[in-house]
Amino acid sequence: MSTTLLGTRRAARAGAVAVLASAVASAAVLAATPAQAAVTNQNLVGTAAGTTIVALGGIVESGPTAASGLNTPDTGKTASNSIATVNLPGIATTGVISTSVATTAITGGKRIVSTARVDGLNLLGGLVKATAVESTSAVSVVNGIATPASAAKFVDLAVGDATIPLNPGKNFTVNVPGIAKVVINKAVATQISDNAAREVGAGIEITLLSALGSYGAGTVIDVAPTAAAAVLPTASLGAPVGGRGYATQVVAVINGTPTVTSGPTALATMPQGGTAGQNLTNNTVGVHVGTLLNSGTVSSTVNGSRTVDASRSTVSSGVQSLNLLGGLIKADAVTSKAQASVVTGGTVARGGQSNLVNLVIAGKAIPLNVAANTKISVLGLVTVTINEQVRTATGITVRALDVKVIGAGLGLPIGSRIEVATANAWVVSAG
Fold first, then answer.
1. 298-348: pLDDT as tens digits
2. Separation CA 377–CA 306 (nearest Å)
3. What residues are paired with 80 via a beta bridge?
4. pTM score above 0.85
5. Which NCBIfam families does the record match to this protein (predicted)?
6. Which of these ranges, 7-16, 193-202, 386-395, has the smallest mean pLDDT?
7. Intra-chain end-to-end CA distance of the chain, in Å
8. What is the pLDDT at residue 18?
9. Under a CB-based contact definition with an 8 Å cutoff, are residues 232 and 196 in contact?
10. Assuming Cys at both sites, which of 15, 123, 146, 375 could form a disulfide with 128, CB separation 3.0 to 4.6 Å?
């Protein structure tokens, strides 16, 4: 199934780019922890994406595409995402992008590996090309000692007329005078302490030396950016917070098994320790999955705080100009918001709401605000849950639209789902 994401230019302040690496960066706050070789309870944090574009000053031009992320002390966990193509007009086009983050048990400890692969890469009007670019960042913890590592692979990589080794070393740099600085196999390893480390890398990082169209000098383009870290937990913080938001997802039932055929778009994940009250946003101009799903701008935001006194997680997601199933379901805009909070010693409070602007289902107009978990059956083809809300003891998931296929003829097997504007927020009571 083909998914196309069209790049965005949207001024989002410096914290927004941390959707990709903020979990790793926030973990660095713990850098002063003394070495304790016996420590084995590190949190494993990893992120991966296909592309990011950040202007000088930290303004996000294009949020992480096909982003994946994990933040867990446990092994055997995985996260993955993929899209069919990215088109950032005038600056970058790609074929398939796939990302993954996984934790595994190894002899004497555990390991986290973040991987991103970008096929069919074309940057800066053909100045940089590659059949494939793959980047991996990893951290291993063995007998309590954390060790970072990275690797990159390239197929048919070309940068102008420069000679590129078959296996370029770390941070191999090509300067294109007056145009760009190109770093190949970018890798930055940090040994925070004996017990904590992080690795941040990218297959390719380009810094514009002069303006290119609407992108100013100093703009940084990352291809296959990855990050991994093992960080020590802290007892000084209050209740843990978490959550994530994504704009759309298509889950098809293939041979009786639900299979994600269009991974979460505009995915934003709450980093460890929250965001210090700052918005972290991921956004994209458009999503296109054949006739199943088309949209304008999509965006997701996380905002969280975690202190000894109280913790809060707020997550939102929105989709503009929505068109599902060839016009069967349309809306000018849909949004969802989820929030969970707790004060030390108290119980978790949670709530949320969806808003749907000019929602029309099979020609019938739906009110802007509808009751939670309102269900509509449409022509024996789909059931639509509007303002879907699922509550647990620690949080809430709010989904503006949850469309389930119950009849044939729509291009998706019976049992498949299309999810629109999903927000999940949670906290764990410290009391």
1. 999 999 998 888 899 999 999 999 999 999 999 999 999 999 999 877 889
2. 42
3. 100
4. no
5. choice_anch_P (NF040603)
6. 7-16
7. 47
8. 42
9. yes
10. 123
Residue-wise pLDDT tens digits, 91-100: 889 999 999 9
> What DSSP string runs through 167-189?
SPPTTEEEEETTTEEEEEEEEEE
Rounded CA separation 19/43 (Å): 18
Of 131, 152, 133, the C-alpha closest to 201 is 152
- Asked if residues 318 and 299 have their Cβ atoms less than 8 Å apart, the reply is yes
| Phi, psi values for residue 8, rounded to 5° | -125, 150
Answer whether 238's CB lies under 8 Å from 308's CB: yes
**Residue from 228, 219, 297, 253 nearest 44 by CA:** 228
Q: Could you identify the residue written with the tokens 């509509």?
A: 376
DSSP string, 333-356: EEEEEEEEEEETTSPPEEEEEEEE
Q: How far is CA 97 from the centre of its chain?
A: 13
Collapsing DSSP to helix, strand or coil, 87 comes out as: strand
CA 368, distance to chain mean position in Å, is 29
Q: What is the mean pLDDT of residues 392-414?
A: 91
**Containing H/E element for 25?**
helix 18-27
Q: What is the pairing mode between strands 310-324 and 293-295?
A: antiparallel
CA distance 252 to 237: 40
How does strand 85-88 pair with strand 4-6? parallel
Decide if 394 contacts 278 (C-beta within 8 A): no
Residue 148 contacts residue 197 (beta carbons within 8 Å): yes
CA 66 to CA 148: how far, in whole Å?
Answer: 24
Residue type, 247: A
